[in-house]
Design a protein that fits this description.
The complex is a heterodimer of chains A (124) and B (235).
Chain A: E1 25-31, E2 36-44, H1 49-61, E3 66-70, E4 74-77, H2 79-91, E5 97-101, H3 105-113, E6 121-123
Chain B: H1 5-16, H2 25-40, E1 44-49, E2 58-61, H3 64-76, H4 80-87, E3 91-93, H5 103-111, E4 116-124, E5 127-136, H6 144-166, H7 172-198, H8 202-216, H9 220-234
Antiparallel strand pairs in B: 1-2, 1-5, 3-4, 4-5
Helix pairs in contact in B: 1-2, 2-6, 3-5, 7-8, 7-9, 8-9
Classes of the chains: A alpha/beta (124), B alpha+beta (235).
Chain lengths: 124, 235
């Protein structure tokens, strides 16, 4: 997937994952036998999207039956990140469910305008 | 030493070939550790899984130095893997010679030639069930990309564990993890009791339980169970 080849820039705060105060996004993963929940806290834009892509790739490779993206704490999402979510849907098995949980009005609007809400279930 | 996105993608592709469920889970974990080791070109990588006593025995290690690292942390009851596990956060110890968080462990680790440790908790059902860790003899060995790669490998370990827990594999490891999850629940309840009684932080509550267990030479889970049943009687 091409977005994994994005050039590295150590001065970019988005390239310092998990460091409070220096990151634009914190991605937390939780696994249970029937659901994988990916919690996205912060902003999804062109600088943080590769981090989401890299976390999603191994998860998708295991073909989960239900993938939940918890966007309660997602303040902003650009169209490219919405497309990434749509492509995640295509990687999942046909019968699998992709759920976007509690998107803000702004995030929900991006999902609707890009037509990506058709690929996922919006919850809450 | 740098980890490039290409390296990570290649490694993930390799690991993607692990047939979840078809392979013995111990073998799969060993594979994750080997891949982590080779991609980081670190001095060692290890995967530890919780047991019923809230300890972190090794499930898979790339070499003996990691085994010793785990022994050091168990002996001193402190260290980056224990913190990562207890607090469910990624822990960076970028230079143990300057690290004041685990004085006894750091000194012993430096004496054995370990200068840096990166420890990532394995998430399972809103809890941590283990840790994936890498170590280096150099200070500040890792980039942000390397951290991201370690997080991705940790996620894979969690997925593997989930597939094991739903599978029919009634292995010793599955039983160990189930009892770890059960004991974690009782420890959480006991922490809640102490927080309610004394208004202290979750971390302080856990330290208090652990200190009591050490002082009385009893198991952490027994001390926790007693606190909970005492609170039920008193209410």
């Amino acid at each position: 997937m091409t977005w994994l080849d994005s050039p590295s820039d150590p001065s970019n705060p988005a390239e310092r994952p998990g460091r409070p105060g220096r990151t634009l996004i914190v991605i937390e993963v939780d696994v249970t036998p029937d659901t994988i929940t990916v919690t996205l806290i912060g902003e999804l834009d062109v600088t943080t999207r590769p981090m989401l892509a890299e976390r999603l790739l191994p998860i998708l490779s295991t073909k989960p039956r239900r993938l939940v993206l918890d966007m309660t704490g997602t303040d902003f999402m650009d169209c490219g990140s919405a497309r990434l979510i749509a492509s995640a849907r295509r990687w999942l098995p046909g019968e699998a469910r992709l759920v976007v949980r509690r998107p803000s009005r702004a995030v929900r609007r991006v999902l609707e305008l890009t037509g990506i809400d058709a690929y996922c279930e919006i919850e809450g | 030493m740098t980890v490039t996105p290409r390296d990570v993608r290649h490694a993930l592709n390799e690991l993607g070939r692990l047939r979840f469920g078809e392979m013995r889970v111990e073998e799969a974990m060993h594979q994750i550790v080997q891949t982590t080791h080779s991609i980081f070109s670190v001095d060692g990588a290890g995967l530890m899984l919780a047991d019923a006593e809230h300890q972190l025995p090794n499930a898979a290690v790339s070499d003996d130095r990691v085994r010793r690292l785990e022994e050091l942390q168990t002996r001193h009851a402190e260290g980056p893997c224990i913190t990562a596990f207890d607090e469910k956060v990624l822990v960076r110890a970028e230079d143990l010679t300057l690290d004041l968080r685990w004085p006894a462990f750091s000194q012993a680790a430096v004496d054995q030639g370990v200068r840096a440790v990166l420890a990532s908790p394995i998430p399972y059902n809103q809890d941590a069930v283990g840790v994936v860790a890498v170590m280096s003899h150099e200070a500040h060995p890792w980039s942000g990309e390397a951290e991201l790669a370690l997080l991705a490998f940790t996620d894979l370990a969690a997925l593997l564990i989930a597939s094991m827990m739903i599978g029919e594999q009634q292995t010793e490891l599955a039983a160990q993890l189930q009892s770890a999850l059960n004991s974690r629940a009782i420890i959480e309840q006991a922490k809640g009791v102490l927080i309610g009684q004394q208004g202290i932080s979750a971390h302080a509550a856990y330290e208090q339980i652990r200190a009591q267990a050490r002082a009385e030479r009893r198991k952490v889970t027994l001390v926790a169970a007693e606190l909970v049943s005492q609170a039920v009687r008193d209410s």
